[in-house]
Amino acid sequence: MLSYRHSFHAGNHADVLKHTVQALIIEALKGKDKPFVYHDSHSGAGRYDLQSEHAEKTAECVDGIGRLWGLDCPQLLHPYLKAVKAINPTGDLRYYPGSPKMAGLLLRAQDRLVLTELHPTDFPLLKQEFGGDRRAKIYKTDGYQQLRASLPPQERRGVVLIDPPYELKTEYADLVNGIEQSIKRWATGTYAIWYPVVFRENIDFVERRLKASGIKSILKIEMNVMGDSNAHGMTGSGMIVINPPWKLEQQMNELLPWLTEKLAQGPGSRFSVEWLAAE
Ligand SMILES: C[S@@+](CC[C@H](N)C(=O)[O-])C[C@H]1O[C@@H](n2cnc3c(N)ncnc32)[C@H](O)[C@@H]1O
Could you tell me the CA-to-CA distances from 279 to 23, 29, 112, 243, 253 in Å, in that order? Predict the structure, then answer.
């Protein structure tokens, strides 16, 4: 089943959190000259037009990137905003970079991207977005299958972003299985896993399985724009980061009070940064 289209959600509060964390991880990897790989298992289209019919129908970006655009934002948001500004050179907010485009804009000439996307409409858009970029390899295949085929990367440094659509409840078990298999192949990579807060039980399941897996160094970052509720759709989102850069915990504790306040939509908004497993 491939009904999910990220074009309806691009630039919302969850994308702000996901891509901010992604950008901070990439900036940390750039601290060394040695090349690294960025692997995106569920890439989407790469670029979204915020004036498209899909984006305008939900207008989710209004309460996401739209609330930050033009504000004097904390320095920790600058890598993320630098990428968003780069595809909006006129200064008007028209386009939003999905995770692969965000990475493409932040990576250096010596770094590499491995991108997978299955959707028959989004895959050609992604290919077109990276046309001529020799750093990028783009596959129309299952994201977890490609992880099995590509890990460990030749560089032995880098980050894997796992951002499934979670259309089916079974995708939470697929996620944990995919992580466990990837870690067996490449234990030292950074893995950044996005999840929505819709039904708390699904997150509890992932947490339980990860805690029982024996995988070490797992940081969980969550931002809720309102209190948990089964009636309001997605009330927040989180990033589970395995082998995070050493400063990420401190950076998120510094940034999230400001960001949560700016993106809050109702009572019960909050954030948390906690270790599911220590190093
Ligand atoms: C949440 S969206 C990705 C958004 C993107 N990571 C971003 O932040 O801009 C999830 C994407 O996964 C794709 N997808 C679904 N199942 C997949 C699979 N088994 N392998 C690879 N991609 C898949 C969907 O078509 C969709 O574009």
Answer: 22, 19, 27, 8, 19
